[in-house]
Structures are given as structure tokens and as C-alpha cells.
Design a protein that fits this description.
Helices cover about 40% and strands about 15% of the residues. It has about 375 residues and is an alpha/beta fold.
Amino acid sequence: MASRQYKIVYCTPALYMAGGVERVLTLKANYFAENFGYDITIILTEGKGKPLFYPLSAKVKVINLDIGFEDLWTCSFIKKVFVYLKKQHLFKKRLKQELIRIRPDITVSLLRREINFITSINDGSMKVGELHVNRANYRNFEQGETNMFKNLFAKYWMRNLVSNLKQLDKFIVLTEEDRNNWVELDNIEVIPDPLTFSPSSYSPLTERRVIAVGRYVYQKGFDMLLQSWSIVEKECPDWSLTIIGQGNRLEYESLMDELHVDRSRCKLMGPTDTIQDEYMKSSLLVMSSRFEGFGMVLVEAMSCGLPVVSFDCPCGPKDIIQDHVDGLLVEKGNVEKLTESIIWMIQHPEQRKAMAVKAVENVRRFAIDKIAEKWKLLFEAL
């Protein structure tokens, strides 16, 4: 048990979706409540009445302020401004009431809309911010979405954000690489995300299958992976590729046709709730992302005994992978090098197995008990 049972409040928009942030928050809240005896409350603004996607301990309390920022998704730009201001005012009022009622020791913001005012709420709690993406892609606009107005807005928004972050008692990022991006701040610490499962067995590396996992969006670089695969499949005719994730696959299916990719050996699948089984049926994970907050799929796959090939994109892979020890790091966006690395892994089974053994050892540092201990030390220091 912990030497002191802290009262901690987390602020995040919703817990009804199958996202990485939702999964990590649920895991940490459960662990803190069950193992450290902390009094944990999660305050939400969205999804009133919707079931939580990941199971939450009965010891963790959830309060939904029912603000409905999601209504903004369907508003016109002008209307959006007024609706946002009205909802933000309501959010501030309700959150302040709850924090003054609960009187937490520590309030943790997952850096959504509350970061604009959380440090001005005098409820007696220490204020901590937790960032789950990297700085460069915090306000990420999809490719082709940027224009002069949005660039100006992004600059103004970042300046405002930095001044709010300076007022936090602690600001937590996921990687050493990203820590170096926040030169203006001296209240910053690095605590990686914890591994969300601990496998009891490992992939036998017998299936001739490459796996990739992530949403079907520009960020994940599946367009580059498919370009690469169109060459790999000719060099390695008995291997297949499976991509697993949420989102619209149509443009990727069209790209497969353009590249004449063999559809019987390249499968684009939807999301699954048995991802561990999919890792177990594979012999190599490839991550082709343009950027990441951390790269949890790398840690997951490695914990299941898979060696990995990944672009050295910002931020995460270089904090996770030891190049040529437990995987291969490839120059960001270099499709030719990605292709060469996948083929090398496929054609060198002994090295692949040796890297798999190292992968399992090296990602133990991300186990929930080790990460929870870092948070406990941080809370005690505050």
C-alpha cells in the first residue's frame, strides 16, 4: 500500500471510445485505486449515458459534466465560436464546483479544453498536465488542411498553451525526444505510457506474416507501407501483410489496386479487441508512421515477442527501439530503406529470433508496475 492515499482527479473528454488515451487512463486509474489505495475520480464532458469502452474498477468514480463539446462537430464556423464560448463557460463553472466539492490533492489535466483555465481554480490541489502526442503534432491538421488562417491560429494557440503550461506544477511528456521540444518550460518530466497487457506467451515466429496496427489516417503512413509492400511481396512471395485498425480503408484499397498489390496476401482489416492474438500470429511488426506521440503498438508487439521495423519518426521509436538489437530504425519517410529493412528481416530468420528475445526483455521497463511507481514518486514529490 502507498504511504499516503492521495485524492486524485483526472480531467478528460470521454471514455466511451476505443482510443489509446482512454485505454492508458483506465489502466492507470485502476492500478492506482487497486494497488496504491488512491481515491480516484475521472471527470468527463462527453458521452453521458454511453457505456465505458474499457472496464473500470468499482473503486474509481466517474462524474460526467455533460457539456457536449461534440455538438461543435456539426456547427458552421461562425456558430461554432458562440457555441464553444457558451459551453466553455459552463464547463469552467461545473468543473470548478466539482473540484471545490472534492478537494483533491492533485488534479491531472489530459490537456484538453480545461488547460485554458485549470490553474486558476483555487481548490487547493496541485495541477499536473499530461500530454499524449508530441509538440509538433499537438494541433495536428490533416494533410492538405492547413492554410494561412489556420497557421496564424496555430501560432497564437501554441503561445497561449505554453503560458498555461508554465503555470502547472508539473508537465508530463512521453519521451525524452519530446521533452527537448519544450525549451520554454522548466517544470517538465518524462513518464512513458505503460504497456496495456502482459502476455503469458510469445509469438513462435512461425507464421510468414507481417503486421501493422493503427487508424487508417495520414499520420500512420499506410500509403508508404503499401508502396513498400508492393516490392516486398515480389521478393518474398510466401509472406503476407495484415493491417489492422479503425477508419475508412477505401483510399488504401484503391492504392493497392494502383500498385497491383496481391489482395490475397495483403489484408486491410477493421479494429479487433483481440489484438494480442493477432501479434501471436505474426513474425514482424512494421510501423510506418509520419509522427507519433509515443508508439504504443511497438511496445505491445515487442512484449508479444515480435521484432519490429519502424520509421524513426518523431516522437517515440528512438526511445523504444535499440537499432539492430531488438528491431530496425529506418530514416523517416524513406520508403526504399523501409522496403530493404523488411526484406532483410524476412530473409534473416536467426537475427529475427535473436531480436525478438531482446524485444521481450527490453520492453519490460514499460510494465504498469514500473510506470505506476514513477507516477507515485512524482505525486509524493508534489
